[in-house]
């Protein structure tokens, strides 16, 4: 979408899965999706550039399916020895987070506002939650009105993309946004990309100030605690898990019970103090995040004579870093175009 805004390009999006699909390989629809800054400060460019855009959409474009909420981050006493990193190994739970200068209305919480005795400290700030069932089709609509063409296809090798342009001509540039499947796509085969399984429960229950997360939980290191309410009646998402190398698409009923119990214990207002039996379940869900130990890969390389720009490995922060990463991709496209001149410009996403 960001590239299409610049004009002068013939863009074709080729994908195995599209908005409306639900598949374990397709991460986007399963996401919460909220904004909780995760990058370390030196790598925070993507989130710093994205947050103003998401905030503007929430305020000015209601049909994008984003609304502003107050987020609460709780740091548990038991996680103090690990500097509150939790299983995600990020900066969200840092005692003095860099994002306090980015997020509006940031404040440290007094102990009187802690939900239970296990919390050592906490903070809150203005955030946003995205209803992915609305936002993803909205993104498609923004692309379509700028002339982008969408095609369904299953590619075995990245080089096959060069022949998929709707113009009938060979594409000059291929942008690889293959997510978790970057580990299986020929010509890329990045084995450092691994699935990080996330299981959620979506319920009808809502409560004020329901976007919250904790630095860990007492059950297992592979489980995490978070909740958020999606915009426009999208339900409340309760999570979750962070299980590396787990492709199981089936919800685990025992995990689901633990997720619901933790959510209700953290925020009893969800059920009016009546326990998990009072949760009205819409569905259970499982998706996999495109985890990459080295972090996101945004760079260009030539594969079989064609320039490929990679943009994958976003783990659990794809939405909240999306516009910043897209900006970097557009910059790389500009570099490639400068090398290709005077060849006619043509790009395929």
TrEMBL record:
Top-rank taxon, per record: Eukaryota
Record key words, sorted: FAD, Flavoprotein, Oxidoreductase
GO molecular function, one term: FAD binding
Transmembrane segments: none
UniProt binding sites for D-dopa: 289, 316
Pfam families documented for this protein: DAO
Cofactor: FAD
Residue positions binding FAD: 27-28
Biological process annotations from GO: D-amino acid catabolic process
Residues annotated as domain FAD dependent oxidoreductase: 2-332
Similarity annotation: Belongs to the DAMOX/DASOX family.
Official protein name in the record: FAD dependent oxidoreductase domain-containing protein
């Amino acid at each position: 979408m960001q590239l299409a805004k610049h004009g002068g390009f013939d863009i074709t999006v080729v994908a195995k899965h599209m908005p409306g699909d639900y598949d374990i390989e397709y991460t986007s629809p399963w996401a919460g999706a909220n904004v909780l800054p995760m990058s370390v400060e030196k790598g925070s460019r993507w989130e710093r550039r994205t947050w103003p855009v998401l905030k503007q959409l929430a305020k000015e474009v209601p049909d994008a399916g984003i609304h502003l909420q107050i987020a609460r981050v709780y740091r548990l006493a038991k996680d103090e020895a690990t500097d509150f990193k939790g299983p995600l190994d990020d900066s969200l739970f840092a005692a003095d987070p860099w994002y306090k200068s980015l997020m509006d209305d940031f404040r440290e919480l007094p102990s009187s506002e802690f939900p239970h005795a296990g919390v050592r400290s906490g903070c809150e700030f203005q955030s946003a939650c995205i209803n992915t069932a609305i936002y993803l089709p909205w993104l498609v609509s923004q692309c379509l009105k700028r002339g982008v063409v969408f095609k369904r296809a299953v590619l075995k090798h990245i080089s096959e993309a060069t022949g998929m342009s709707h113009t009938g001509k060979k594409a000059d540039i291929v942008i690889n946004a293959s997510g978790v499947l970057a580990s299986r796509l020929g010509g890329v085969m990045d084995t450092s990309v691994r699935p990080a399984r996330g299981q959620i429960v979506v319920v009808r229950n809502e409560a004020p100030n329901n976007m919250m997360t904790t630095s860990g939980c007492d059950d297992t290191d592979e489980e995490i605690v978070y909740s958020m309410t999606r915009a426009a009646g999208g339900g409340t998402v309760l999570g979750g898990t962070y299980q590396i190398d787990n492709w199981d698409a089936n919800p685990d009923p025992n995990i689901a019970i633990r997720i619901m119990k933790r959510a209700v214990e953290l925020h009893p207002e969800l059920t009016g103090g009546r326990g998990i039996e009072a949760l009205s379940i819409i569905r259970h869900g499982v998706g996999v995040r495109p985890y990459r130990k080295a972090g996101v890969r945004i760079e260009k390389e030539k594969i079989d004579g064609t320039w490929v720009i990679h943009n994958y490995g976003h783990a659990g922060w794809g939405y909240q870093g999306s516009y910043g990463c897209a900006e970097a991709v557009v910059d790389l496209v500009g570099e490639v175009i400068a090398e290709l001149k005077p060849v006619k410009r043509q790009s395929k996403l």
